[in-house]
Design goal:
By secondary structure, the protein is an alpha/beta fold. The chain has two domains: 127 residues, Nucleotidyltransferase, domain 5, CATH 3.30.420; 171 residues, Nucleotidyltransferase, domain 5. It contains eight helices and twelve strands. A hairpin with a 3-residue loop joins strand 1 and strand 2. The two termini are 15 Å apart.
């Protein structure tokens, strides 16, 4: 059986899996990205993880890697949500350890390719994928082609400024979207709401570092005022931004994936409402807002592995 290795380098966790050509994740493992301070040590951990799930190296057709700020040249450059700085020669360093083709792309581009091959974009030639994790990533497909830009940095919509007096993103962009709409951004909004309103809330006894996205969802389900206001605020901003993005390429669908989407109706309903309200008249009713069609626990791995099947 032909297999590909799919690697998703996230700001918190790196996921590695063996994927068949029909999109089945056969074996997988993971480790915490944040716990490795040195990039060389990270490459070694990546190699060890690949070895740990690979029984027959000859069955591997290639390795696909999704990473933030990935270039066409095999590098990661000044990633906002990773602790390493500068230009990191990811493909070159990993090729010193493995004897197979390696394909690298932006993590959200991988998500878009994965949706095209295995998910809810199989029937679409024009769509946008938004990944809502530690930050906000985006992949744009127009006329069936992934838009990568000159050297791979197209569609950095997480750093699209929605308010030049607002919060800073990890790259220092004032009012960048991911500072509001992401796992990190929604935590920042909880703190903002606590300062704005005097209502009782479970979050008055929780520090920022101890706060997790699932806590906010549970609190909303328990009718916590601060949690509900936080989702309404986030959804309003997100819907407005998505409506603006439609004017770039007029997609038939926008597909949402990542941890924040797990909040379900709490994030989706205010986002859809704001999205429809802010679309230009000739776009209304034409753009679907969907969640990922990939099995959630393996979606990032499948998206990365899809790079291999797309390129070999």
């Amino acid at each position: 059986m032909k297999l590909a290795v799919g690697i998703d380098i996230g700001g918190t966790i790196t996921k590695i899996g063996l994927v068949s050509e029909d999109g089945k994740c056969i074996k997988k493992t993971s480790f915490r990205t944040k716990e490795i301070n040195n990039f060389s040590d990270y490459i070694q951990e990546l190699y060890s993880s690949i070895e740990s799930i690979t029984d027959d190296p000859n069955s591997i057709c290639g390795i696909g890697i999704g990473a933030p700020n990935a270039s066409k040249n095999g590098t990661i450059e000044t990633p906002a949500n990773l602790k390493w700085e500068g230009k990191l020669n990811l493909v070159e360093e990993l090729k010193n350890k493995v004897n197979t083709e390696i394909f690298l792309s932006n993590d959200a581009n991988c998500a878009a390719v994965g949706e095209m091959m295995y998910g809810n974009a199989k029937d679409y030639k024009d769509f946008i994928v938004i990944t809502l994790g530690t930050g906000l990533g985006s992949g744009i497909v127009s006329n069936g082609m992934l838009i990568e830009g000159f050297d791979g940095f197209a569609a950095e919509l997480g750093h699209y400024s929605i308010n030049n007096m607002g919060r800073l993103t990890g790259l220092g962009v004032q009012g960048g979207l991911e500072a509001y709409v992401s796992a990190t951004g929604i935590k920042r909004t909880i703190m903002y709401m606590l300062s704005r309103y005097m209502n009782d809330s479970i979050f008055r006894g929780i520090s920022f570092n101890d706060l997790h996205g699932e806590d906010i969802t549970k609190a909303a389900e328990n009718n916590d005022f601060i949690a509900i206001k936080t989702f309404e605020y986030t959804g309003k901003i997100f819907g407005e931004a998505l409506a603006n993005f439609v004017s770039f390429t007029q997609p038939e669908a926008i597909i949402l994936t990542g941890g924040l989407v797990h909040s379900g109706k709490w994030i989706l309903e205010p986002t859809k409402k704001s999205f429809e309200q802010n679309l230009l008249p000739f776009y209304r009713g034409k753009v679907k807002l969907l969640t990922s069609g990939l099995e959630d626990k393996d979606s990032a791995i499948l998206g990365s592995a899809a790079l291999v099947w797309k390129n070999i």
